[in-house]
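This part of the workshop introduces the protein records we will be handling. Getting from the letters to the tokens is the skill we practise here. The record below serves as our worked example for the rest of this section.

…
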Amino acid sequence: MTSVTPTVQPEVHPVGAHRAEVDRIRDDFPGLHQQVAGHPLVYLDSAATALKPRQVLDAERRFAELRTAAVHRGAHTLAATATEEFEGARATVAAFIGAAPDEVVWTSNATEAINLVAYGFSNASTGDRLDGTDAFRLGPGDEIVVTELEHHANLIPWQELARRTGAALRHLPVTEDGELRMDLAPDVIGSRTRILAFSHISNVLGSVAPVAELVRQARAVGAVTVLDACQSVPHRPVDVHALGVDFAVFSGHKMLGPTGIGVLYGRRELLRELPPFLTGGSMISTVTMERAEYLPPPHRFEAGTQKVSQAIALAAAVDYLREVGMDRIGQWQGMLGQRLAAGLVGIRGVRLLGPAPGTERAGLASFEVDGVHAHDVGQFLDDRGIAVRVGHHCAQPLHRRLGLTASTRASTYLYTTAEEVDLVLESVADVRPFFLGTPR
């Protein structure tokens, strides 16, 4: 793989120290060097989509310009080179999460990855698609468990699976403050539970799930675990084998990579038994007019022309993150998340969602401004060049439980400075005085 070493490896530092190093990291990101509404861009929407460094942009462009060819389909030099780089990218991404290459399946995004697993269960439940699929059969009397924290991508596919198979969908609730009711877990995760799907980190609250305990309870009843790692893999070290989950998903565009590429991790023995979701070319070994035999994983799940340049670029993003250091990225974002949380609770009329300051959280914070709709808050901040996310963040049930229809979310990444966080806090403090005429 081509080296994509960042311009600098920043230290995790107290506020104000080593600012030049962070600035040099920022120099790798062309998107940061623009203005919005006459102000320098302050990008605090990385939990939705992260910006891309030049090294990632160059890797995808280089492949498109010089290596374009169909992978696994040609004997000419370009096809062989493209295939080697494509599979090299798989190995790079697999190593990043502590998996083997044959446990990593390319998808278009995390949503497709979850649907792949859900439809695998569905296909196993409606006919003999492959040998040995009993582990994935669902029917009336079986239960699928999610949590009330989930992004719609980790909820709706399971709703649909329950509808198709007759299984029941249950959920582990949260408190009025958004805390997962782990005290109720033994009552919700029981002998009929076949699937437990949950987020590693809430995309709304920034709270971190007790993965080890949830996996332990699922294993005790023989349930398959599916981890939504979209907000963890980009921001902190994640080892899927150490976590003990059966499946995990994440998206490239949240971790400095391009859109259109996602990853499904699955334990090797489970992927071997899971029926395919999409069928067609590239995922077969033998085809007659009556039937087909499928390739072993991961290629069994990769029908059709693949996301080749996107996979190459995602591997470049992984190289970049690894060079910076995931431990340091996680520590830096943890500090920024605490800075956001502490600042928000000190602003009159602002309600912080999720863990209180001093409690573990990711580098994001969602909040409500009393008397001002989240969309107006977002527009007010945008007029100052500050990009944040507004709405229900694809988590309507959670917002409903919190008594909200929408919230505002500020999310950081390795290129975020403490000064940018402070600027957001200063601007949020001006929202109610501007709209309602209240004291600051």
Notes: Confidence is low (pLDDT under 50) at residues 1-17. The two ends are 53 Å apart (CA to CA).
